[in-house]
Amino acid sequence: MNVIIESPANPRVKQLVKLRESPRHRKERGRFFVEGAEDLLTLARAGRTVEEVYFSCDIEKEREEHKWLDEFESKGVETIEISKQAYAKASYRSAGHGMIGVVRSWDLGLEAHGMMGNGPVVVLDEVEKPGNLGAILRSVEAFGGEGVILSDPTVDFFNPNVVRSSRGLMGSVPVISGSKAEVMEWLQNSGRRILATSSHAQEGFGVREDPSALAFVFGSEKWGLGEYWKKQEMEWVRIPMKGTASSLNLNVSVACLLYEHNRT
Q1: What's the domain range around 30?
Q2: CA distances in angstroms from 232 to 47, 187, 228, listed in the order given
Q3: Residue 216 DSSP class
Q4: CA end-to-end distance (rounded Å), the chain
């Protein structure tokens, strides 16, 4: 902890801004931007590689987060003190104090987690909102889901909004990604019952005595599941609702089905 950065124009600060703003830069560097000590610690404790931690000079005087610097340093993480102005330049929240980290990204290929265990798997087709994806990862972790499969995602998994909404749990929930055809092949090889979700389905998903491992397939926030999925051999279910709402937020829908699944 012997590096002190004063200027917002420092090259390392500029690199943080690029990581925060540019999906292309994140991909090229194989690194992503994380703001917040708790999220960084969650990622580190999940075994993800935190390479650098930047903290405002106010942190040791005004916040409790300084106690976590020792933990990062014990893991071999470089910790760098920066001025309030430099921190505000790099910050997602435009704050003058706090903690920012650079974390090494990881492979999301379909082979990364094999067949997973017997818990429910959540498949997200063409998910596009990073805040939704992060919130879904929290729900999957909370309700004991086995993992998440991204089918033709339009969102960058390492977007800062995914990190923030997941509260760093993106590092501990198994996530794999592939094309629609690749995902469908993975599901078929896994031996799971595949339940596609639609507000137009006739059957409502409820408590059932069924020991089968399940995969819940959800469509995009805007369009739902498209023609590709309608041509596949799957069971279609809906969330029973008493009100007049035609649909629910994607994360709420995922949470409802996982909660209901836990009642079996």
Answers
A1: 3-104
A2: 37, 11, 7
A3: E
A4: 52
